[in-house]
């Protein structure tokens, strides 16, 4: 009996010893697993943001991010900034059409619905665009309010290829990132070669608003493809306005007397062609009044994202046809297949290009 008690006591002692030793080990394992499940991403503001190793759910903070995510990894989107218009819905999958609407964090129409974002449970929120004043503080505050990681990726025309590489770092799918990045780099190389051949620089005006006199002036992110392809933006202003552009008097446009007038919609271009005031302009006299193609996004830069790449080919062809000399129907089909995963029919291409 005494022997049995001694054995029982020894078993209990070993049991306690094993438990005591195993608890720290278990805790250490949990900590190790926790570290393995997360990573630190240094965004383009230098902010170090802790992310899950694998991102499955992502929310855009604004329209540029929405376009880029739609192109790069649409299946991971859990919401959209704004619903797609009826005219562009055919380029969009049913899944995207039915996503909840969050609103935008930045801009004149900033209306972010934080509750909707939280309810969608994204693993990360991605903001893309220019480095605005105070943006770091804004994103830190947003991250704190939502308790969701927020990262910033710079999205300028020059850094567009790198933006896809950075998206691949956050979301995975580096093969897709490289494919899109390489297409843009090749396009940029062709543009640089073409720009070197330009001897007679053309002036281009890109306008909007009810009267066509809301100028997307030199320095506007919505019009920077003008200079990128080797033309001159016809309008300069002291302070560039974002959004709807700078409203200018007709006299300023008349003084610039552009070689080409391009407007944000077909309706506006048709309106301008019929107005007596504009008939004094060189571009109107020479029948060089056009509108930016659209579908699902405006070729010129509304929003200012990857849609500008096909816009540069279109604009180069329009302004310098003897130098750029693209088969635009072929180019548009290739771009839509690669970036939007959409097979355009011949009549759809003609409709987009206004033929």
* Biggest beta-sheet profile: 6 strands, mixed
User: How many DSSP H or I helices?
Assistant: 15
The end-to-end distance, rounded to whole angstroms, is 103 Å
Domain module tally: 2
Principal-axis shape equals: globular
Average pLDDT, all residues? 89
In the CATH scheme, the class of the largest domain would be Alpha Beta
CATH homologous superfamily designation of the largest domain = Nitrogenase molybdenum iron protein domain
The CATH architecture assignment of the largest domain turns out to be: 3-Layer(aba) Sandwich
Which class of secondary structure composition applies to the elements?
alpha/beta
Can you give the helix content as a percent range?
40-55%
Q: What is the N-to-C order of secondary-structure elements (H for helix, E for strand)? A: HEEEHHHEHEHHEEHEEHEHHEHHHH
CATH topology of the largest domain: Rossmann fold
Low-confidence regions: 1-33
């Amino acid at each position: 009996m005494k022997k049995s008690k001694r054995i029982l006591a020894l078993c209990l002692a070993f049991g306690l010893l094993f438990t005591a030793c195993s608890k720290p080990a278990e805790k250490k394992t949990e900590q190790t697993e926790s570290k393995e499940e997360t990573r630190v991403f240094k965004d383009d503001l230098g902010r170090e943001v802790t992310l899950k190793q694998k991102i499955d759910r992502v929310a855009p903070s604004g329209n540029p991010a929405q376009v880029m995510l739609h192109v790069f990894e649409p299946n991971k989107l859990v919401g959209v900034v704004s619903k797609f218009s009826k005219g562009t819905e055919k380029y969009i999958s049913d899944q995207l059409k039915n996503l909840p609407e969050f609103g935008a964090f930045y801009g004149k129409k900033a209306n972010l619905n934080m509750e909707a974002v939280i309810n969608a449970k994204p693993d990360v929120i991605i903001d893309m665009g220019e480095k605005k004043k105070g943006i770091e503080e804004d994103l830190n505050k947003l991250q704190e309010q939502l308790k969701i990681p927020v990262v910033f990726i710079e999205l300028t025309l020059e850094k567009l290829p790198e933006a896809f590489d950075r998206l691949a770092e956050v979301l995975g799918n580096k093969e897709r990132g490289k494919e899109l990045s390489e297409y843009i780099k090749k396009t940029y190389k062709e543009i640089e070669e073409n720009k070197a051949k330009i001897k007679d620089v053309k002036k281009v005006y890109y306008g909007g608003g009810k009267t066509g006199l809301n100028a997307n002036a030199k320095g506007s992110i919505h019009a920077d493809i003008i200079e990128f392809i080797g033309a001159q933006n016809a309008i300069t202003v002291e302070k560039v306005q974002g959004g709807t552009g700078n409203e200018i008097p007709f006299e300023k446009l008349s003084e610039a007397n552009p070689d080409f007038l391009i407007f944000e919609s077909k309706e506006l271009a048709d309106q301008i062609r019929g107005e007596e005031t504009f008939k004094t302009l060189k571009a109107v006299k020479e029948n060089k009044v056009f509108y930016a193609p659209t579908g699902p996004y405006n070729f010129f830069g509304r929003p200012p994202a990857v849609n500008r790449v096909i816009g540069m080919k279109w604009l180069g062809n329009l302004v310098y046809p003897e130098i750029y000399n693209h088969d635009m129907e072929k180019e548009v089909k290739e771009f839509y297949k690669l970036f939007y995963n959409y097979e355009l029919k011949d009549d759809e291409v003609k409709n987009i290009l206004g033929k």
